[in-house]
C-alpha cells in the first residue's frame, strides 16, 4: 500500500465520536481534519494498525508543537491528548480563541509539573483509557530540539501495563521543519509523514508495579518508534539543564524517569 494512499480509502466507517469528546470536538474534527489534509498533504502509513474501538495509546516521538495536531488529523479515529492548562485559561478574545481551538482538537487541560501534578496527569490519562478512548502520549516527555530521539520515560508503559491498553508506536517526520521550536506560525511549504506501527502488547513484561517491567516495556516502545522515525538516538533523557546543585545531583543519581 502506498505511503501516500488516500486516507479516505481505508477505514471509511469511522466510529462515532465518544461522548467524552463533546460537540465541539466532533465539529472541530469534521472541519479541521479535511482542511489540514488539503493544506499539508501528509504522507500517512499504517492507519490500519490503529484499533478502531477500545482503549489505545498512540506513543510518538515529539519534534514540534504541531505534533498533537498531526496525530489526530492522521489517525482514523478521535484521539485525545493533554495540553497545558494555560491554553484554556486566557482571557479576552485571544483566550477564547485558544480555548475553543484546543477543545475542538481533542485537548484536555492539565497542570504540568513534577510530583503530584505528574501523578494527576497520569490519572487523567488512565481515566480516558478506561472510557475506551484513544490518547496520544510522548514517552520522551518533551520536544526534541536537536532532532534526536531521546530515552523514553516509563509513564506510558505504566499506563499500558495498568490498563491493558495496546500501544501503537507513531513516527513523525518533518513536523520540526513545518513548525520549528520558537516559530509562531507553521510553514506551508513543507510536508510531514505520519507512520503508525503495529500495536504492541506489553503484558509479557510483567505488572505495572514492577520497575523492571516498566523499563523493558518502555524500551520496546522506543525501539518501535525509532524504527518508524529513523531518528538518531540520543541515548540520554531529554532533560532541561540543572538549575541548582541539588538538581544536578538528582539527575546524576539512578532513578526512574516518569
Automatic annotation (TrEMBL):
Residues 1-20 are annotated as: Disordered. It is an enzyme of class 2 (transferase). It comes from the Bacteria. Residues 56-175 form the Phospholipid/glycerol acyltransferase domain. GO terms for molecular function: 1-acylglycerol-3-phosphate O-acyltransferase activity. Keywords: Acyltransferase, Transferase. GO terms for biological process: phosphatidic acid biosynthetic process. Its EC number is 2.3.1.51. The keyword Transferase applies. The keyword Acyltransferase applies. GO terms for cellular component: plasma membrane. This is 1-acyl-sn-glycerol-3-phosphate acyltransferase. It comes from Microbacterium esteraromaticum.
Amino acid at each position: 500500500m502506498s505511503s501516500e494512499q488516500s486516507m479516505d480509502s481505508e477505514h471509511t466507517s469511522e466510529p462515532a465520536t465518544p461522548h467524552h469528546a463533546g460537540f465541539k470536538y466532533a465539529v472541530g474534527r469534521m472541519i479541521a481534519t479535511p482542511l489540514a489534509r488539503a493544506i499539508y498533504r501528509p504522507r500517512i502509513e499504517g492507519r490500519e494498525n490503529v484499533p478502531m474501538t477500545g482503549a489505545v495509546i498512540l506513543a510518538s516521538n515529539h519534534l514540534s508543537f504541531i505534533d498533537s495536531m498531526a496525530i489526530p488529523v492522521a489517525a482514523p479515529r478521535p484521539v485525545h491528548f493533554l495540553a497545558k492548562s494555560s491554553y484554556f485559561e486566557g482571557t479576552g478574545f485571544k483566550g477564547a480563541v485558544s480555548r475553543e481551538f484546543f477543545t475542538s482538537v481533542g485537548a484536555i487541560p492539565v497542570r504540568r509539573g513534577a510530583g503530584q501534578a505528574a501523578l494527576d496527569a497520569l490519572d487523567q490519562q488512565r481515566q480516558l483509557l478506561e472510557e475506551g478512548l484513544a490518547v496520544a502520549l510522548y514517552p520522551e516527555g518533551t520536544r526534541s530540539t536537536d532532532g534526536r530521539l531521546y530515552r523514553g520515560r516509563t509513564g506510558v508503559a505504566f499506563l499500558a501495563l495498568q490498563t491493558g491498553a495496546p500501544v501503537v508506536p507513531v513516527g513523525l517526520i518533518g513536523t520540526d521543519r513545518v513548525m520549528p521550536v520558537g516559530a509562531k506560525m507553521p510553514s506551508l511549504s513543507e510536508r510531514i509523514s505520519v507512520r503508525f506501527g503495529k500495536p504492541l502488547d506489553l503484558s509479557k513484561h510483567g505488572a505495572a508495579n514492577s520497575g523492571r517491567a516498566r523499563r523493558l516495556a518502555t524500551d520496546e516502545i522506543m525501539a518501535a518508534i525509532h524504527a518508524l522515525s529513523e531518528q538518531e538516538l540520543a541515548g540520554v533523557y531529554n532533560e532541561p539543564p540543572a538549575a541548582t546543585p541539588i538538581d544536578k545531583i538528582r539527575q546524576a543519581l539512578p532513578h526512574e524517569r516518569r
